[in-house]
């Protein structure tokens, strides 16, 4: 009997994500995304993701341990509502990651609009300066959106694996009758 399949699946997926991150880092994409984001929402989304991943692995150990004991023939008394509610904060973390991305987008648009001065269009030297500032604002908007979307997708895949294993464990334990 194979044990800890949930943990192995999570490890495989997250190692693949780490390989993708290493590739992007080597190409210089990661530094650009973080260092040029004036809203700093890329940092917020990343911190939320890593915090959520640690918590998700902790919950996965709990689910995996219960699954292993059930497969070994143990009869467990599990409160299904309580067990699933302990995973609920992970949905909230996903929502917060998306919110961080949207906040960064809004900040980028504000930077862009704040930097626009119609009077500067009459002076050729100021046109370039205004265009640069507009580009910084839209760059911030795109960077925070891209980073948040990527970490949100990874979080959602991790969360789906945990939720599926939780339902299977609760079903196998008889808690869903």
Describe the protein.
- The protein is mainly alpha-helical.
- The protein is 82% helix and 0% strand.
- It has 6 helices and no strands.
- It has helices at 5-27, 29-35, 41-71, 80-85, 88-115, 124-173.
Give the SSE layout.
Elements: H1 5-27, H2 29-35, H3 41-71, H4 80-85, H5 88-115, H6 124-173
Whole-number average pLDDT?
A: 90
N- to C-terminal separation?
25 Å
Low-confidence stretches: none
The main β sheet shows up as: none
Overall radius of gyration: 22 Å
Helix content: over 70%
Q: How many DSSP-defined strands?
A: 0
Q: What class, by secondary structure content? A: mainly alpha
What fraction strand?
under 5%
Shape: elongated
What is the number of helices? Answer: 6
Overall domain count: 1
Order of helices and strands: HHHHHH
Top keywords for this entry?
177 residues, mainly alpha, 6 helices, 82% helix, 0% strand
């Amino acid at each position: 009997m194979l044990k800890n399949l949930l943990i192995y699946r999570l490890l495989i997926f997250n190692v693949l994500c780490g390989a993708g991150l290493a590739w992007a880092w080597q190409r210089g994409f990661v530094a650009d995304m973080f260092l040029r984001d004036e809203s700093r929402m890329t940092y917020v989304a990343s911190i939320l993701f890593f915090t959520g991943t640690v918590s998700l692995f902790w919950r996965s150990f709990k689910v995996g341990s219960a699954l292993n004991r059930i497969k070994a023939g143990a009869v467990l008394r599990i409160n299904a509502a309580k067990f699933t509610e302990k995973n609920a904060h992970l949905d909230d973390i996903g929502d917060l990651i998306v919110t961080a991305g949207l906040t960064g987008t809004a900040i980028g648009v504000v930077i862009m609009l704040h930097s626009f001065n119609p009077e500067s269009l009459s002076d050729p030297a100021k046109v370039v300066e205004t265009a640069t500032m507009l580009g910084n604002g839209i760059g911030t908007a795109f960077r925070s959106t891209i980073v948040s979307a990527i970490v949100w997708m990874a979080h959602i895949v991790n969360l789906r694996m945990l939720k599926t294993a939780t339902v299977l464990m609760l079903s196998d334990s008889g808690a869903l009758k």
